[in-house]
Amino acid sequence: MMTYTKRDIVRRVAEAKGEPMIKVEPWVDGVIVAIREIMMSANTECRIEIRDFGVFEVKETKAKPKARNPKTNEVIYVPAHRKTHFKPSKLLKSFLRQPLEDK
After folding, report:
1. What domains can you pick out in the chain, each with its CATH number?
2. Sheet of 54-60: strands edge to edge?
């Protein structure tokens, strides 16, 4: 599996815009920080929609008073918390649903 880092994203944006990486990096950082701060500041739920890419959501989960630790079989209480969810756009989803070619 190929892993891409923020540096790879900076490199692609720099190549696409014909700018040096040093000039593009603060902009990419700024976008990532802004998305992170919006998601972290959400009291319970928020939705960040980026057209033709997808939707990031912060959702609240319910408390689970009778969850079970599978290792010890101990019954534990799991408090309500927040979780993230990503839903791809129609464009991205239709591309990802195409059958893979035989290798």
Report:
1. 1-41 (no CATH), 44-103 (4.10.520.10)
2. 46-50, 54-60, 82-88
